[in-house]
TrEMBL record, chain A:
Single GO molecular function: metal ion binding
Organism field: candidate division WOR-3 bacterium
Protein name (Swiss-Prot/TrEMBL): Cysteine desulfurase
Aminotransferase class V domain location: 6-362
Keywords noted in UniProt: Iron, Iron-sulfur, Metal-binding, Pyridoxal phosphate, Transferase
Cross-referenced Pfam families: Aminotran_5
Recorded family membership: Belongs to the class-V pyridoxal-phosphate-dependent aminotransferase family. NifS/IscS subfamily.
Reaction catalyzed: (sulfur carrier)-H + L-cysteine = (sulfur carrier)-SH + L-alanine
Keyword Iron on entry: yes
Automatic annotation (TrEMBL), chain B:
PANTHER family to which the protein is assigned, alphabetical: IRON-SULFUR CLUSTER ASSEMBLY ENZYME NIFU HOMOLOG (PTHR10093)
GO biological-process terms attached to the record: iron-sulfur cluster assembly
InterPro entries: NIF_FeS_clus_asmbl_NifU_N (IPR002871)
Domain NIF system FeS cluster assembly NifU N-terminal, residue spans: 1-123
Lineage: Bacteria, Bacteria division WOR-3
Protein name: Iron-sulfur cluster assembly scaffold protein
GO molecular function: iron ion binding; iron-sulfur cluster binding
Length: 411, 124
């Protein structure tokens, strides 16, 4: 019997749109030329990159000359942070719930002499504009706050945060990786100076991403040594991936409202139907003002990785912020920044729906998840304590576990 | 990511639960860190007649608990105390390097239950 497969991890990777694939094929086959070449081989690749730039710009309400192509959203984020900080000194601000590709460059800059403020978020994962107002100093050189959070779905008031930064003449960057492809994005209205997003966000290929730079913004290149992308990003363009990005952006721009509406409806089914089948669920992130098709929930007394492995056995792909699912063995910094206790963060489950998600897929999840949770809870000493009327978390007080996880014995 | 043996013990864990009126109990780990194991044992004539566990944790933690209980049943107290974390990981066909701490917890939890038994013997 063929296994039902339900993919609910679109934040990690998205299936390629057929239109994107079709746009890519010529550049994987005969049209191998370099867009910079003078000869005939350069013509079609050059035209493809130009065409893709227009489509990608159109998706986010930007002018084509504001878009440069990079290889990943991580590269775009590194470029934004390091490029804005280059040649300056002083203070930088990022939110505490940024993706690691913003947090790590920020911490690298801090090691190089910048002072770093990691802005706190409220219990729903939102950065309050007044906390940004309070954090900005006369020597602040950049602010970076993500448009929407990939783990808890919180959408930030970027227009207001950018306004606060600009009032003090500080450049503002936003990581739009989780937002693009789920929310309509108009960079003109948002007022940001620099914005990152990836082809993956719009069902395009891996290996292509974009960095929007508002004309006049002072930002240094990350990759030097070539005149590509108007001297802003050296290296021969990944023409096939960029062409796929363009085609995917065009389709997404046209279909976004339909897709988001359907994803929201399906996510709402999970929000309303799951609690009638399982108790002790704690939904995380905001109720309103969250990404369409994004469900984040803590399933008390069940560790995240055990849930993911069992879901995978049922053909369901999902994600978690538990420490056991992270290569670093650190629990989600996002959930901790929102004030969730470690004990709850270890039980997190993140479901990111996509344009390919169906009612049948949601039915499959709603059928399979509850018995998995019940099985794992029967195995959980925490749940046994709860049933005996004891405090399941009594042992949690004052616990320290960094050592447990860093002491790796050779087997 | 995991060996077939780990996945088998994760999917079909042996000896889940708690021994009724146990001779010894041991609990190690912490929900804060993502792993917690609770073992209970029945001992007759110095031999582990029954070993049961409850575990909150990742796939490796559950598989390790299951394997520890399977390996321990029928062993003398001395033999069970000599069981090492490396023995458990080996029996499971290896664990990813960053999951070895789970196997450390497994033997520790069993040993804690045995020590609890030995202390009770001393008191009696």
């Amino acid at each position: 019997m063929k296994m039902t497969r339900v993919y609910l991890d679109h934040a990690a990777a998205t299936p390629l749109l057929p239109e994107a694939r079709e746009a890519m094929v010529p550049f994987l086959d005969g049209e191998f030329g370099n867009p910079a070449s003078i000869h005939a081989r350069g013509e079609k690749p050059r035209a493809a990159v130009k065409d893709a730039r227009e489509k990608v710009a159109g998706l986010v309400g930007a002018r084509p000359e504001g878009i440069i192509f990079t290889a990943s959203a991580s590269e775009s984020n590194n470029h934004a942070l390091k490029g804005l900080a280059a040649g300056r000194a002083g203070h930088i601000i990022v939110s505490a719930i940024e993706h690691v590709s913003v947090l790590e460059p920020a911490r690298t800059l801090a090691k190089a002499g910048f002072e770093l403020t990691e802005l706190p978020v409220d219990g729903e994962g939102r950065v309050r504009p007044e906390s940004l107002t309070a954090a900005i100093r006369p020597d602040t050189v950049l602010v970076s706050v993500m448009h929407a959070n990939n783990e808890v779905g919180a959408v930030q008031d970027i227009a207001e945060l950018a306004r606060v930064a600009h009032e003090r003449e500080v450049p503002f960057h936003s990581d739009g990786t989780a937002a693009v492809g789920r929310l309509p994005v108009d960079l003109g209205a948002l007022g940001v100076d620099v914005y990152s997003f990836a082809a993956q966000s719009v069902y395009g290929p891996k290996g292509a991403a974009a960095l929007y730079i508002r004309p006049g913004t002072r930002i240094r290149p990350l990759v030097e040594g070539g005149f590509q992308e108007r001297n802003r990003r050296a290296g021969t363009e990944n023409v096939a991936a960029i062409a796929g990005f363009g085609a995917a952006a065009e389709v997404t721009a046209r279909r976004l409202a339909d897709w988001s509406g359907e994803m929201s409806r399906l996510a709402d089914r999970i929000f309303t139907e799951l609690p009638s089948r399982l108790d002790r669920l704690v939904f995380t992130g905001p109720g309103t003002g969250r990404l369409p098709g994004h469900v984040s929930v803590c399933v008390e007394f069940v560790e995240g990785e055990a849930m993911l492995l069992s879901l995978d056995d049922e053909g369901i792909a999902a994600a978690s912020g538990s420490s056991c699912t992270a290569r670093t063995l650190k629990v989600s910094h996002v959930l901790l920044a929102m004030g969730l206790p470690h004990t709850l963060a270890q039980t997190s489950l993140v479901l990111t729906l996509g344009r390919d998600t169906t009612d049948a897929g949601v039915d499959h999840l709603l059928e399979k998840l509850p018995p998995i949770v019940i099985r794992l809870r029967r195995m959980s000493p925490l749940y046994a304590k709860l049933e005996r009327g004891e405090d399941p978390y009594a042992a949690a007080a004052g616990a320290a576990c960094e050592d447990d996880h860093s002491t790796v014995e050779e087997g | 990511m995991y060996s077939d043996k780990v996945m088998d013990h994760f999917r079909n864990p042996r000896h889940v639960g708690a021994v009724e009126n146990p001779d010894g109990v041991g609990e190690v780990g912490n929900p804060v860190c993502g792993d917690m194991m609770s073992f209970s044992i029945r001992v007759r004539d110095g031999v582990l007649k029954d070993v049961r566990f409850r575990t909150f944790g990742c796939g490796a933690a559950i598989a390790v608990s299951s394997m520890v209980s399977e390996m321990a049943i029928g062993k003398t107290i001395e033999e069970a105390l000599a069981m090492s974390n490396a023995d458990v990981a080996r029996e499971l066909g290896g664990l990813p390097p960053n999951k070895l701490h789970c196997s450390n917890l497994g033997a520790d939890a069993l040993h804690a239950a045995i020590r609890n038994y030995l202390e009770k013997q001393k008191e009696a």
